[in-house]
Structure to design on (431 residues):
């Protein structure tokens, strides 16, 4: 379904072989735990450690049983002798399915953690690179006051660090197993076997399971992936906006030989960023399904099973791809400081309006009086395309209170960078 967006390591985890490999890993771990309890002879446990399954046989048996776990167990039994009677001892299917899925989630989350770390490294480096690069800050899409391009990226750094913490917590909550038998009572498999099995597999244990690991855990995991995807969408949307012809302050990489349009050879479209934004919507949609999987009938039903075969692999595969793609974008992001400066000057200096207003207030005017004077001149500058400073030099209400030297100080772009270092220190990008 999403092969185009699959990277090999993540794809292997969620492949059919990746799933059955972990089923077998769980079955063997349970037998080892039973062996430590003295319930399975040591020599039988040793032979079970070498058990195998055959995918063709599993598929053949599945056509007959219509039950994937029983088909799998028949294939495993084919690789053993009489000791096969100990495999799946006291278990229900979800002891294997959910515990193995916990292993898949853990492995997938570890890849995503590496992806996040790689993106953070690039974001941190580029934030420092553009720490003092002036650019126009925009609110509602309209010029507001100058800011630093590096400050934008420093905020992304901090957001991705929060995402790293969220992902670590979601992994801990979802990398969970259960080996408690039918409806979770431990009637056929003692708690000690569950404890030993989960410890051996490196998983946390569901303290009180039903017949399943509770699905609020999976909902948190998918929601966390959706939050990370939403952050990437936010960053990519900013680049898309900055790449518009009318702004053109930054561009995603454009490779040699790449084409942007079948009809218009001049086109350089932000299609990679658009791809990131579009895929974020898919993961966000999976969050709804994950939340609806939380409510199941009594100790379990199977309504969560089919959706999870889509939403868990898709979410992990897509986010892995998106993180890798956006790291590539940021690593090669083209930034145009000269164009940023041109855009700063586009509005005739009206972005200094707040500083002028505050200076007039300091000279004794009320806020309302100062606001009216500044707004009148700013709107005139904007409408007539005349320099704001020129209009202020001819405004008696201003010149009677502010000297030319004071106005020079007000119209100084460096003023807006004076606390940037403090923000960078706060996020550990400066010492």
């Amino acid at each position: 379904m999403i092969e185009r967006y699959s990277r090999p390591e993540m794809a292997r985890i969620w492949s059919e072989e990746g799933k059955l490999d972990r089923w077998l890993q769980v079955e063997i771990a349970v037998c080892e735990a039973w062996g430590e309890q003295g319930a399975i002879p040591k020599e039988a446990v040793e032979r079970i450690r070498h058990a195998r399954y055959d995918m063709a046989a599993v598929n053949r048996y599945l056509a007959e049983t219509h039950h994937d776990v029983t088909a799998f167990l028949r294939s495993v039994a084919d690789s053993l002798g009489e000791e096969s009677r100990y495999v799946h001892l006291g278990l229900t299917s979800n002891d294997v399915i959910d515990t193995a899925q916990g292993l898949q989630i853990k492995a997938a989350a570890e890849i995503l953690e590496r992806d996040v770390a790689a993106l953070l490294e690039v974001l941190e480096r580029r934030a420092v690179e553009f720490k003092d690069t002036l650019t126009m800050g925009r609110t509602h899409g309209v010029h507001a006051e100058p800011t630093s391009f590096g400050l934008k990226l420093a905020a992304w750094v901090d957001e991705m660090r929060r995402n790293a913490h969220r992902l670590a917590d979601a992994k801990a909550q979802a990398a969970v197993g259960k080996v408690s038998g039918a409806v979770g009572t431990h009637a056929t498999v003692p708690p000690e076997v569950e404890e030993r099995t989960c410890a051996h597999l490196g998983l946390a244990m569901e303290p009180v399971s039903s017949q399943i690991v509770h699905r609020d855990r999976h909902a948190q995991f998918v929601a966390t992936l959706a939050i990370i995807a939403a952050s990437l969408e936010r960053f990519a949307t900013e680049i898309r906006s900055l790449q518009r012809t009318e702004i053109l302050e930054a561009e995603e990489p454009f490779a040699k030989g790449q084409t942007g349009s079948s009809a218009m050879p001049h086109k350089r479209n932000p299609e990679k960023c658009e791809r990131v934004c579009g895929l974020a919507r898919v993961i966000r949609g999976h969050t709804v399904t994950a939340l609806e999987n939380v409510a199941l009938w009594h100790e379990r039903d199977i309504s969560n099973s089919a959706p999870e075969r889509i939403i868990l692999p898709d979410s992990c595969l897509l986010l892995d791809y998106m993180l890798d793609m956006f790291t590539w974008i940021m690593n090669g992001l083209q930034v145009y400081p000269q164009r940023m400066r041109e855009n700063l000057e586009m509005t005739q200096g009206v972005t200094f309006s707040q500083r002028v207003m505050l200076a007039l207030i300091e000279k004794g005017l009320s806020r309302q009086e100062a606001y009216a004077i500044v707004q009148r001149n700013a709107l005139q500058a904007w409408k007539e395309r005349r320099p704001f400073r020129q209009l202020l030099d001819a405004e008696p209400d201003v010149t009677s209170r502010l000297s030319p030297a004071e106005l020079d100080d007000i119209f100084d772009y460096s003023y807006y960078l004076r606390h940037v270092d403090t923000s960078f220190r706060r996020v550990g990008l400066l010492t």
Remarks:
- The domain at 3-11+90-254+261-341 is CATH 1.20.200.10 (Fumarase C; Chain A, domain 2).
- The longest strand covers residues 142-148.
- The radius of gyration is 30 Å.
